[in-house]
């Protein structure tokens, strides 16, 4: 079956299921339906009523006003309605509204919005993956620190760990190992200074 183009003898009114997503707008005009729409005569009368409504409003059916027709008194809701009306007026007066390629422009704009949303979602997934990787890296680092004696099995910092925290250069672990292994014990002050100068961090 195809949608009717106008009520005539060859067209027949049918009852078809539809989802809420199929609704675009609601009108304040109501068509009263008979209790039983199974007889073809009842459906035919409904079709006649719809034709009459369309003829009565050639410029389009009046939309259901949530404030005037539904008597919604919430002030915040009224502000939202006014904002929507203002935006609709801006759309009508917009240069793009009169563009013959408006439908194509809308399609491109919608595609841009979808792509932007996909990019944001991808960034969130990437950040999540990086966080997981960082957690794995942190576990590996903590395992190394435990093996070297910088922390115990409960991840509590030991003496070597506290010494490493006090060293302010780029080779904290290496210097700490040298200290605890007695690398500086037999060196003179001049030799210690010369050796330590190799560990001075110089930013390029």
UniProtKB/TrEMBL annotation:
<dbReference type="InterPro" id="IPR012961">
    <property type="entry name" value="Ski2/MTR4_C"/>
</dbReference>
<dbReference type="InterPro" id="IPR050699">
    <property type="entry name" value="RNA-DNA_Helicase"/>
</dbReference>
<dbReference type="GO" id="GO:0005634">
    <property type="term" value="C:nucleus"/>
</dbReference>
<feature type="domain" description="ATP-dependent RNA helicase Ski2/MTR4 C-terminal">
    <location>
        <begin position="152"/>
        <end position="204"/>
    </location>
</feature>
<keyword id="KW-0067">ATP-binding</keyword>
<keyword id="KW-0347">Helicase</keyword>
<keyword id="KW-0378">Hydrolase</keyword>
<dbReference type="GO" id="GO:0004386">
    <property type="term" value="F:helicase activity"/>
</dbReference>
<dbReference type="GO" id="GO:0000460">
    <property type="term" value="P:maturation of 5.8S rRNA"/>
</dbReference>
<dbReference type="GO" id="GO:0016787">
    <property type="term" value="F:hydrolase activity"/>
</dbReference>
<dbReference type="Pfam" id="PF13234">
    <property type="entry name" value="MTR4_beta-barrel"/>
</dbReference>
<protein>
    <recommendedName>
        <fullName>ATP-dependent RNA helicase Ski2/MTR4 C-terminal domain-containing protein</fullName>
    </recommendedName>
</protein>
<dbReference type="GO" id="GO:0005524">
    <property type="term" value="F:ATP binding"/>
</dbReference>
<keyword id="KW-0547">Nucleotide-binding</keyword>
<dbReference type="InterPro" id="IPR025696">
    <property type="entry name" value="Beta-barrel_MTR4"/>
</dbReference>
<dbReference type="Pfam" id="PF08148">
    <property type="entry name" value="DSHCT"/>
</dbReference>
């Amino acid at each position: 079956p195809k949608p009717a183009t106008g009520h005539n003898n060859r067209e027949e009114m049918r009852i078809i299921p539809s989802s809420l997503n199929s609704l675009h707008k609601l009108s304040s005009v109501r068509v009263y339906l008979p209790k039983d729409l199974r007889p073809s005569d009842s459906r035919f009368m409904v079709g006649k009523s719809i034709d009459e409504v369309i003829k009565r409003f050639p410029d389009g059916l009046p939309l259901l006003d949530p404030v005037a027709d539904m008597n919604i008194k919430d002030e915040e809701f009224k502000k939202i309605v006014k904002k929507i009306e203002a935006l609709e007026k801006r759309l009508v007066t917009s240069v793009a509204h009169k563009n013959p390629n408006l439908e194509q422009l809308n399609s491109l704009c919608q595609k841009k919005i979808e792509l932007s949303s996909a990019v944001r979602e991808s960034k969130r997934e990437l950040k999540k993956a990086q966080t997981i990787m960082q957690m794995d890296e942190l576990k590996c680092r903590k395992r190394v620190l435990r093996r070297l004696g910088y922390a115990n099995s409960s991840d509590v910092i030991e003496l070597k760990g506290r010494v490493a925290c006090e060293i302010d250069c780029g080779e904290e672990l290496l210097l700490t190992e040298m200290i605890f292994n007695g690398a500086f014990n037999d060196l003179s002050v001049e030799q210690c200074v010369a050796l330590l100068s190799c560990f001075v961090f110089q930013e390029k």
